Structures are given as C-alpha cells and as structure tokens.
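LOG
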Amino acid sequence: MSALIVNNEIVHYEAIGRGKPIIFLHGWLGSWRYWIPCMQDASSAYRAYALDMWGFGDSAKATANYSIPEQVGLLNHFLFEMGIGKIALVGHDFGALVALRYARSYPELVDRMMIVGYPLGSGMIDTRVESQAVPELRSWMLNGIPGAEPIQQEAEKADQEAIRATFKMMNESDPEDLVLNLDIPLLIVHGEMDKAVVPPDIETLARLKENAHLVLFEGAGHFPMIEEPSKFSRLLKEFLALEPGESPRQLQLKEEWKRRFR
C-alpha cells in the first residue's frame, strides 16, 4: 500500500509500469482497485497511477474534503507531490468531473482524457445515487455484473456523505459546458444499459467538437471497465496511441466499438 499526506490526511494510491504518466480516477462505489486490469494493460508503455479520492477506499474520510473543488485540489496536490508533469486522465462518473475540472484549470498539463459514465446534461443522473444507502446502492448498480467483486468489496469503504456531496455538485453543474469547451482529445465512453447515468442523445453528440468522440458499449452498464475489460482496455490503448493532434473520431472505424444511434 502506497500513501502520502495531503493537508494532514492520508491519501492512498497505487502505481505500476514505466513511461508517460496516466491517472485513473474512480467514481461512486469505487476505489483504485477496479482500475487494476486497465493499469496492467497500460503499464507496458505508461506509468499508471490510481488514487482513492477523499471519502473512498483507504483515503481519509473527512466531510470538509468531499466537494468537487476539494477533490480537484487533491488531484493537483498529488501530481505536485509526485513530481508528475503532463498527463493522460481517465475518470469515471464523478471522477470524470474531477478530471474535466482539472483540465479546465490546468489545460497545459493534460494531454488527453477519457471520461466514462459522465452525464452530458443536467438531470441525467438517477436520484437513487444520492438517496440510497451504500448497501442498497451497491445491490442496485452491481448485481449480476460478472467480475464485480472488487467493487462490491471496496464499496463498503465509501462514505455515504462523499457520494451525496459529489452527486449534488454534479447535478448542479453544467456538465455539457465542460465537455464542449475542452480542446484536448476527449473520448467519451458510455454503457448503453447504464442504470445510473442516462447516455447522451443525438442532439448532444451533434454539438461535440472534432476533438471529442463517443463510444457506446452496447452490452455494458455503468462499469464498462469491469463488464467488458478486454474491449475497454483495447479501446484505451488505441486512444493513447493516437498521435498528438489526431482526433479520437478515427476510433469509430473499429467495428467492435462502433457508435450506434437509436
């Protein structure tokens, strides 16, 4: 277990591999652990880091730190303490919001970004994320998902108040604005069967700039990195392999993760 001290509180993280840095940010019910397959696949060419955000996993539980600005501050402090420069970012649900907010504040430090299960509009998050206790939320979101044991175990460590605080700020923000005004390569991944966050509609997708692209996982829900790990990791590798300035829309040529509109 690796850890550092931020504002007198423990922050847990793990890192493997060598090369350019890539940072994985979990979401609700999560921790660094469900990124292990992705970290292992990326580690052949990247130094892969995953940290537990405030209120989750083995990082400190202090309600004053649960807002999105505090979580962004945690990421910034972590990168500074670790001496990490320009990065690739992968964020899941509220972790995606943290990544987007960080990129808005420090655009020169983010090379590219993948966001997963992120709401591209207001009112697109099911209110059960906020209202249900962790055991019920875990059952609702994870039952029937093969390979979900790591999330099931780590979900028990999540502070309910951290989930509520991040949900509230996501619901009150303008999530589409952050995406539409981002200039770096952006890959948006969504599970078609997502129970927690409604996938974006055609009208929203039509407003995306050339630097952004959606890949819809037709058989997955809110956790495509767990439900379809091989497909997810292949997609991530292809995205990371794009040359600077190349649009992620080239990835639509791959039939196995082609977009589908209904």
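LOG (cont.) second protein
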Amino acid sequence: MTYALRGFKGLWWEPGQYLGWPGLLAEAGYTFFMLCYTFAPESGLRWRQPFRRADESHIRRLAADCAARGIELCLAVNPNIGAHAWTPDGATLPFHPTAGRDWFRRDWQARRPGQALEPDLPLRYGDKDDLAILTDKLRRAADWGVRSFALSLDDIDPGAVPAEFSSLAAA
C-alpha cells in the first residue's frame, strides 16, 4: 500500500536541527515535513511576536530545500500553549523523567539568554485583533515559501466559547 502523504514532525528541536532532514525524508519517500510549534518561541509561547531573523532564515532555507525535493513544508503554530502548558507544573502531560522538572526553563534560557520566560496571552476566540496577528504571521511564512499550516489548539478549553458565538468552532 502506498500513501500520497507520508510525514514527519520534529519536536523540541532547535531550528538548525531541522536543516538536514529534507534530504533524508526525500530519500525515504516522505512528502510532508512539519515544523513543530516548539520550533521557535514565536510559533508557540510567543506567538504574537514576529519570528526573529535567524528563525526566518531557517524557515526560508527549509521551504526552498523541501520544495526542491517535492516535500510539503508545514509550520505549526500553537496560540494556546502559553495558557496552560508552559511550566512543568502546569503541563497537561508530564515531562519525560530524563528531562527533569527544570528542563523547560533551562531550554528557554539556552534559546533566549537573559530573557524572562513570559508567554504571550493565549488566543482569544472570536477576537478580530488576534485573528489578524495570527493571519499576518502565517501570511509572512507563506511569503517565505511555507505552503501548509497547522493551527495546534492543544490544551484547548472547550468551555471557552465567547458569549456572542454559538460554538467554539464559530469563534
């Protein structure tokens, strides 16, 4: 049996760790590669902020390399992770025992020395300003060559329906 779409997603990798994968994935017959929302803080914890130039450069390089190999590059964005899962104590799933309770803070400090771990506010469902921020972020990534996007709504609160909407999906 063959599949039209075979994919792979990196998790908790540094942006540069993604660069060598398109060649291997193409050789193995993969057609889809997802940048996890942990790719950079600006795709998760700091989703309201623009990507830093170095991360933009990685996305552009990956998009070009994937396109040349017939691989669809997908960027995942999680505008909710800062609400619940950004600390070991608040994580929905427990951290792997080898990571230790302070792993998340150490990882943040390694990526952003001297910057406090302060996630952006989560997506406000039905909010036009939040939709504009998210849409602009995805439009920029599309300009860099990304053609697929995953809006990851991990840790979603099913009861977060704004009063003016009939459902969370409508919001």
